Amino acid sequence: MNYWAQTFAYLKKHFWLPLVVMLVPAVAACLLSTPYYEVSFVAAFDYDPYRSIGETFAIIFGDSWRHGWRVVIISVLQVLGSSLVISAVDRHFRTGLLSLKTPIRLLNYSIFPIFISFAVMCMVSIVERFVLFGLVMLVQVIFKAASFGAVAGLAVISLIAVALFLAHVIIITSMMYWAPVMFVYGYRFRDAAAASFKLLARQKAHRGIVFPLVICAGLQLLVGFLQVHPAISCAVNFVVFMFTNVYVCVYVILSFYKICKLERRDVLPYENLSLPMPLPDDKKTDEKNAKNAKNAKNAKSAKSAKSANADDTERDKSHNGAVKPERKQKPNKKRGGEGDDVDQKRR
């Protein structure tokens, strides 16, 4: 399904809250780092891909390994902003109310699951960066030994960076759904990880994340190759950070509701729902139910009385219509009865 179209339709009506929440993280990120650096680092070679190991390591990892405090600040702001946006949108879907009231409650609702997911995604990003470093060094050694030109080496490095970026996005897409599964259904971390993989097994939700992020990565790579003014580069970084944060947060929670077939109160209000039974405070309904119960009780009593009367009538008929057996007369066994009669006749 086209979840990306539904995401843009939702943002068209309710864009203000994600933009306000993600304003501070986007400003801090565009000033302290560069978005999609796992792709845009190719422009930092300055058309000379054959560098030493130290220079290649510094180019691929950037300043993150030197200035760790920047990564910590960006990560904390990212977790806080994502937690507020996802919790607010989730409450909007459940109750129809979109607001930033009770921000502490919103943070408490989803900050722990989002922190776990974000930490795992950061570890995956670090592993991906080391794999990228090893492949780039391999290309440098092989192409330099074969005396290939700088353009060919730079083209192959760019292809490797884009391929690893696609694989990275596809891998972390399922991790983005860990947090909704945990705070909506109450799953633990292991159960949420397994459930998210099963949830997206037959879905194509990753397409709605991969394509926009690839476009943003391509824009960052183009800006790096053009070597534009730092102010323009900072403005582009801000727009890219803002779009990525807002779009991904809304897309994840919206597609999660669609995949799980959960009802959304922002689309279907409570007053439009058909209730399975009347409300308990309806007096007419209560009186009608009491009357029906009384009638049923009276009918049952009448039926019981009628059945008892029928039994008594049948019993009386059986007693009155019965034929009494005739009593047999016993023969007269008086001694000498017949002899006396004969004597009287002789006389």
Protein described:
This protein has 347 residues and is mainly α. The protein is built from 14 helices and no strands. Helix 3 (23-32) runs antiparallel to helix 6 (68-95). The longest helix has 43 residues, at 103-145. The protein is elongated. Residues 271-282, 321-330 and 332-347 have low confidence and may be disordered.
Key descriptive features of the protein:
single chain; elongated; 347 residues; 14 helices; mainly alpha; disordered C terminus
- The 3D shape can be described as elongated
* CA-CA gap between termini: 136 Å
The secondary structure category is mainly alpha
Beta percentage is under 5%
Count of β-strands: 0
What would the average pLDDT be, to the nearest integer? Answer: 79
Largest sheet: none
The level of helicity is: over 70%
Uncertain spans, ≥5 residues at pLDDT below 50? 271-282, 321-330, 332-347
Q: Please give the radius of gyration in angstroms.
A: 44 Å
Summed up, the helix count is 14
Q: How are helices and strands ordered from N to C?
A: HHHHHHHHHHHHHH
Brief overview, please?
The protein is built from 14 helices and no strands. With 347 residues, the chain is mostly helical.
List the helices and strands and how they pair.
Elements: H1 3-14, H2 16-21, H3 23-32, H4 37-40, H5 53-61, H6 68-95, H7 103-145, H8 150-175, H9 178-185, H10 189-199, H11 207-226, H12 230-260, H13 283-320, H14 337-346
Helix pairs in contact: 1-12, 3-6, 3-12, 5-7, 6-7, 6-12, 7-8, 7-9, 8-11, 9-10, 11-12
